[in-house]
């Protein structure tokens, strides 16, 4: 089993015929992902061959869903067109929209996320690497070859740290890895993934990666304390960040003691989470928890 994405998922790619869309569609197909179509109104009716795998291009998400039964879309369109793309997908009734695009204006994100919630579409992102259920399916840009199927669930704000922890724990493997994105407003939160992993019978342990800025990790800590019975190991990026400087993602803004790595570490540890100060130390904590059976 996995969360949000399985081998049964049928994926459309909005922007498939662009440079990034072509590159990552090729990678998704090579990893065994069931990409059933692309979406580009100007190229509707064409077919794109990926290593002898023909993928049709549809004029709209609704048309692609009707023709293929697609239930997931991956969005590779420029920031100026992302609001329209996600709104179209939500209005078509698709179950999951994975928004890879970075640089999306916050007011656009607020608008399309509100529309998606009202239509029952889960959004992951924007400004995220997507998600992968190793050995089953991947939607986005997460490399498929750096880990294997297993029983760890991973939720992360950072794409790079998602890849690093996947590699550090490659001998154990993952049920699903979700990069939720680091923008101030995102569609799927740490808490959403914690709840899903808690209910997933094939996830035994959860790794949570956060970063400085905001209070998402503190809210996740409160949720873990009250609702999560599975062991959770955490890592917060930014322990060495200089005071008073905005670092990395648009959401990584620290004001005074609020949003610091130390404050987040304290909140998580108070909820029973082991927190590493480096990715390697975090991986060691995971191994120790699994070995102890705690």
The coarse silhouette is globular
| Broad structural category | alpha/beta
Helix content: 25-40%
Number of helices: 9
Based on CA atoms alone, the radius of gyration comes out at 19 Å
Strand element count: 14
> Whole-Å distance between the termini?
22 Å
Largest sheet: 7 strands, mixed
Q: What is the arithmetic mean of pLDDT?
A: 93
Beta-strand share of residues: 15-25%
Order of helices and strands: EHEEEHEHEHEEEEHEHEHEHEH
Poorly predicted sequence stretches spanning 5 or more consecutive residues? none
As laid out across the biggest beta sheet, the strand order is: 3-4-2-1-5-6-7
Structure description:
α6 packs parallel to α7 (216-227). This protein has helices at residues 19-30, 61-68, 79-92, 106-119, 159-168, 190-199, 216-227, 261-270, 279-292; strands at 11-14, 35-39, 47-50, 53-58, 72-75, 96-99, 122-124, 130-133, 137-140, 149-156, 174-179, 205-211, 232-237, 274-276. The protein has a seven-stranded mixed β-sheet, sandwiched between helices. A seven-stranded mixed β-sheet has the order 9-8-11-10-12-13-14, with helices on both faces. The model has no long low-confidence stretch (mean pLDDT 93). 35% of the residues lie in helices and 23% in strands. The longest helix has 14 residues, at 79-92.
Write a short abstract of this structure:
It contains nine helices and 14 strands.
Reconstruct the topology from this structure.
Blueprint: E1 11-14, H1 19-30, E2 35-39, E3 47-50, E4 53-58, H2 61-68, E5 72-75, H3 79-92, E6 96-99, H4 106-119, E7 122-124, E8 130-133, E9 137-140, E10 149-156, H5 159-168, E11 174-179, H6 190-199, E12 205-211, H7 216-227, E13 232-237, H8 261-270, E14 274-276, H9 279-292
Parallel strand pairs: 1-2, 1-5, 2-4, 5-6, 6-7, 10-11, 10-12, 12-13, 13-14
Antiparallel strand pairs: 3-4, 8-9, 8-11
């Amino acid at each position: 089993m996995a969360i949000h994405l399985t081998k049964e998922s049928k994926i459309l790619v909005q922007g498939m015929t662009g440079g990034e869309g072509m590159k990552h569609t090729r990678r998704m197909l090579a990893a065994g992902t069931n990409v059933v179509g692309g979406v580009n109104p100007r190229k509707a009716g064409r077919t794109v061959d990926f290593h002898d795998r023909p993928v049709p291009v549809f004029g709209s998400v609704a048309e692609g869903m009707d023709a293929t039964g697609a239930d997931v879309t991956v969005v590779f369109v420029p920031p100026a067109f992302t609001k329209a793309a996600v709104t179209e997908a939500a209005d078509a009734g698709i179950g999951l929209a994975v928004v890879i695009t970075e640089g999306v204006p916050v007011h656009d994100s607020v608008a399309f996320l509100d529309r998606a919630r009202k239509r029952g579409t889960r959004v992951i992102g924007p400004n995220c690497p997507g998600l992968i259920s190793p050995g089953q399916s991947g939607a986005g840009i997460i490399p498929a070859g750096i880990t294997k199927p297993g029983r760890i669930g991973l939720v992360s704000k950072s794409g790079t740290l998602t890849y690093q922890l996947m590699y550090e724990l490659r001998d154990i493997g993952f049920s699903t890895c979700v990069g939720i994105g680091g923008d101030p407003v995102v569609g799927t939160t740490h808490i959403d993934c914690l709840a899903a992993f808690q209910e997933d019978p094939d996830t035994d342990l959860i790794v949570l990666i956060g970063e400085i800025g905001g209070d998402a990790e503190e809210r996740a800590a409160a949720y873990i304390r009250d609702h999560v019975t599975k062991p959770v190991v955490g890592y917060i990026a930014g322990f060495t960040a200089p005071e008073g400087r905005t670092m990395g993602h648009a959401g990584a803004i620290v004001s005074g003691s609020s949003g610091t790595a130390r404050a987040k570490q304290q909140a998580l540890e108070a909820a029973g989470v082991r927190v590493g100060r480096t990715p390697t130390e975090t991986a060691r904590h995971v191994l120790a928890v699994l070995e102890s059976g705690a």
